[in-house]
Amino acid sequence: xxxxxxxxxxxxxxxxxxxxxxxxxxxxxxxxxxxxxxxxxxxxxxxxxxxxxxxxxxxxxxxxxxxxxxxxxxxxxxxxxxxxxxxxxxxxxxxxxxxxxxxxxxxxxxxxxxxxxxxxxxxxxxxxxxxxxxxxxxxxxxxxxxxxxxxxxxxxxxxxxxxxxxxxxxxxxxxxxxxxxxxxxxxxxxxxxxxxxxxxxxxxxxxxxxxxxxxxxxxxxxxxxxxxxxxxxxxxxxxxxxxxxxxxxxxxxxxxxxxxxxxxxxxxxxxxxxxxxxxxxxxxxxxxxxxxxxxxxxxxxxxxxxxxxxxxxxxxxxxxxxxx
Length: 324
Hints:
By secondary structure, the chain is α/β, with parallel strands linked by helices. It has helices spanning 21-32, 41-52, 64-73, 92-96, 127-135, 143-150, 177-186, 203-212, 235-248, 269-282, 304-307; strands at 36-38, 60-61, 88-90, 103-107, 113-124, 154-162, 192-195, 218-221, 255-257, 286-289, 320-323. It folds into 2 domains: 21-162, Roll (Sulfate adenylyltransferase); 171-323, HUPs (Rossmann fold), CATH 3.40.50. It is 33% helix and 16% strand. The strands form 2 sheets. Strands 1, 2, 3, 4, 5 and 6 form a 6-stranded mixed β-sheet that branches. The longest helix is centred in the C-terminal third of the chain and has 14 residues, at 235-248.
């Protein structure tokens, strides 16, 4: 248990790798003289989610031992449940310019320094094997698989530090896990159900959310606003739909709207587990898992994302999935 919520973070402790004050200045100085790696949109999202604790217990990008066990068993090397490899891919040329044990500066495409990687390992991987294990297909038409095939052939593992959070399109809604947990306590919520969608809310969503409010103290509306497919509805439209509902249709004292800065992977059942873990870290006690959660096309069965929770061992997750 923590002092700010009734549910512990995944792995027992809420990670914080966001630097401030003198520590930030020292790390930034080290980054300026270190070799640089440019992050894509997915890696930028992952860096922030690691640093703010949304991906607790991760403290950095996975090394090979964690990577291999996540692919094969949905677990980190220490046995903790973890369904999707959170990795940092680079080109062979980039990898050859780096050395284990030395810091690597992390930058945006416009060369703004955002973080520091304590490089522990460089390793190769098989994209087709990862595609089959994570996405259940090697079809390049799958958006997650296509992204995987387009990335570099070498993965960098090591702990990370974040200098500054990304500028959000919705700064008033950009809660960290620490901030959401504090908000739940301030509202007196001991049980909280989280709800995520990458689409605008519709009548069925409204019904599910209001039904969930009958069994918990609060509703945490948490639409995903990171990178999605080009034909997905823009994040601004998704958030706007929730803001309208909150103004006219939901009890304000029992609902909190925030944004989830993750990128979509479209990994179906495995991604449903990742979304549940993240919401536990944000302080939710329950999480709504919809039909074909995080799915795309016809790659997953309608209820596969709900059924994967039935395969977990006691204690793997503290958050309660609600299959609606």
